[in-house]
Amino acid sequence: MPDIAFASIFGTSDSLVAGVTSSEFLWCCLASLVLGAVSATVYMYRHEHTKSFVVTLALLPLIVQVVITLVNGNLGAGIAVMGVFNLVRFRSIPGSAKDIGSVFFAMAIGLATGMGFLSLALLFTAIVSVANVIYAISPFGKQSQPSKMLTVTVPEDLEFEGAFDGVLGRFTERFELTEVRTTNMGSLYQIQYRVRMKRRGEEKQMIDELRCLNGNLRITLGLAPTIQSSL
After folding, report:
1. Are 15 and 32 in contact (CB under 8 A)?
2. Is 88's pLDDT higher than 80?
3. Which residues, at least 6 apart from 197, have a Cβ–Cβ distance to it below 8 Å?
4. Which phi and psi angles does 165 have, rounded to 5°?
5. Is 189 helix (H, G, I), strand (E, B) or coil?
6. C-alpha pair distances (Å), 32 with each of 25, 49, 60, 68, 102
């Protein structure tokens, strides 16, 4: 006799959840919570995060597990749930590549536990977690030199178009003019470049040569804003 917790008040149901016992369901819930915590911990490793997103990530496998348990064997309910997930997708804000990958990771755990494949969920979590940590600590995909923002101030009577290309070409791997704006009531221009140095430790030498070209006005060089790796 099936557990009363999994019996529909409508009498009959096409879902296979009617054949699930309380102990089986609780084991699946426990596995979802533990593996969800593991996925959230892996996400936090060497990555900026917020508590709300981490908590959501830890609970996502449990939520997906219950949804999959309910729609398992019911084609109509499965199509309806797919439509709801599409609505949630368009109501969500964009995230980084790692955020979206972590969400899919948590959802895959919930899919496995929701269908009762606890061993597969455990093995899958272990493989992805180890691979994630290895990629995080390895130099794989890391740029040799980070991009920097170079701001050069020039007087309004200086023809700055191409005036610094020679110096930047010698010291940088590549450079790109990103912005030109006026300052000091229009008497000065600020030219902004995104640059990537060829070698470490040559910033001072490059700035000294630029000072000779811009009349020894202000020059700043700092790390460029992080480009969000969105999908």
Report:
1. no
2. no
3. 145, 148, 171, 172, 173, 203, 206
4. -65, -35
5. strand
6. 11, 21, 8, 12, 15
Q: H or E element: which one contains 99?
A: helix 97-114
> What pTM was estimated for this model as a whole?
0.66
CA of residue 152 relative to chain centroid, distance: 33
> Using CA of residue 195, residue 199, residue 203, residue 205, what is the dihedral sign?
negative
Q: Which residues pair with 154 in a beta bridge?
A: 189
Predicted local confidence at residue 38, as pLDDT = 93
DSSP H or E segment with residue 197: strand 188-197
Considering only residues 18 and 161, tell me which one the structure prediction assigns the higher pLDDT: 161
- DSSP letter, residue 96: B
Could you give the CA distance from residue 108 to residue 180 in angstroms, rounded to a whole number?
47
> What average pLDDT is seen over the chain?
81
Q: What percent of the chain has pLDDT over 70?
A: 78
Q: How confident is the model at residue 1 (pLDDT cuts 50, 70, 90)?
A: very low
**Phi, psi angles (nearest 5°) of residue 177:** -75, 120
Asked whether the predicted pLDDT for residue 91 surpasses 70, the reply is: no
